Here is the input.
Amino acid sequence: MLHRFLRGCLSYSVSKRRRKYGGVTALVSGRHFRVWSPCSFPDSVNLTATVVQDQTPLRVAVMSAAAPGTSKAAHSDVAPKRKKGPGALATAYLVIYNVVMTAGWLVIAVGLVRAYLARGSYHGLYYSIEKPLKFFQTGAILEILHCAVGIVPSSVVLTGFQVMSRVFLTWAVTHSVREVQSEDSVLLFVTAWTVTEIIRYSFYTFSLLNHLPFLIKWARYTFFFVLYPMGVTGELLTIYAALPYVQKTGLYSVTLPNKYNFSFDYYTFLILIMISYIPLFPQLYFHMIRQRKKVLGHVEDYSKVE
Amino acid sequence: LSRAKKAVVFFEVEILDAKTKDKLCFLDKVRTYFFSSYPQWYPARQSIRLDPKGKSLKDEDVLQHLPVGTTATFYFRDLGAQISWVTVFLTEYTGPLVIYLMFYFRVPFIYAPKYDFTTSKHWVVHLACMCHSFHYVKRLLETLFVHRFSHGTMPLRNIFKNCTYYWGFAAWMAYYINHPLYTPPIYGEQQIRLALIVFLFCQIGNFSIHVALRNLRPPGSKTRKIPYPTKNPFTWIFLLVSCPNYTYELGSWLGFTLMTQCLPVAFFTLVGFIQMTVWAKGKHRSYLKEFRDYPPLRSPILPFVL
Here is the structure.
């Protein structure tokens, strides 16, 4: 029974070359062990138990690997063990970048508040912050470059994915489909993005300067509980609102026949994007929750001021 | 599993050859014994190493020749469920063959019902079907009769990833080529004829390289040698390129793109090219590392360029 099992499994790993050796005797843990190695021996093996005297047997201790060092925590804000970290010039540049981005999103926040106070209602606030929103959200593409070059220890793919999804919403949905710009769902995600980004960029700024106030760290890993679902809701509602206009005008769509033998239906594409939120959002959300446990886990041991 | 992680399994291993009384233990014996204690970890999924972060030891390694004393301590790592390369290749190549034919014969529910089981009026569509099918039949036959694999297995999740890639792209390409509204190439017969010549030339070239690589390696062995041009003119490209099988593969798909003038085919060619370049660079690097006298004129995949 055992040997049939072995035969089946060993055929994967044992090379097909013939060994020149005949029988194999094995004394294992004081017990006799019958082993057939189907591929390495031309014919089956005779076992004779041979007691070894006057020779120290080779003791083989096989222990399992201590810890799975390669866990799947690809997107970790804690600095990885081996990386040297950015040099002085890169750090200076990153500080400037993060300060500028914090300022930019503060401008957007102030713009929203002022517009609300001036108009007296939440509707149509998008128009008052349209330009800075486009500028600073698009500017975040630089972060992909930072990861690619190596001055930021995050994954290029993950960062790219996050930034491009934001840029997609800003340009390919909100900017392109004028009719949704007056929707309230736009305000929902813009507010979520603004608060998140102000906290996130100030977090990075202070981290780079090695003076991270606990409050910012706490805010970063706590506010997302509300901001994430809020942002996602706003985004989904906006895309949903854009659908009828896209279908009517055939926006960004290509139909057959054409000389490149290609077609693209933006309407279906948007629906697929909405569906993709279902598996993706929980993953990202729970990733943040896990990060929170890791970073704020021993909150009881620390005092408020670091 | 956590219980097994802390378990330390001791074997006293003494292997004697009944004929020559030579004490030799190949590492696959260690895997066999380990497997007998832990039946859930068949040898193909065991990664045994001398150092937890080191490289995995091979089956051909001899216990006595390793840098160990009378007690050898190995570290074990579970590689996860494994599947044989041959199985993966057969599955991932049969898919495109069948799927393309389904689109070619216009099986119901793909195109509008009035087109069910009709055939295209363009002869290039029939030609494309023959070329595509020929390509994958060739790959299947090569998998069965030509290739000699270094590794027996790969992780199980690869089969899902690979099949999604091959099957997905095959469906996407086949949809447009066999579409009732397909537009044949602009330059008509000239373009198609040139494309067919390029395609066939590269198919023969690709096959020649596979045969040449197979002949480098005696049956059942895993020896690695520098490939050199043979009497077959198609192998003379070895003078300029380390991995001409990928070069010819790229050429075949460029030919097919030209033949069908279809943008999805161009995308498939591009993605394939990127992946093959990554593989070619890796292979080129390992050749350079392993052989001191490796010909300096060679590039990984494109002569002089890449």
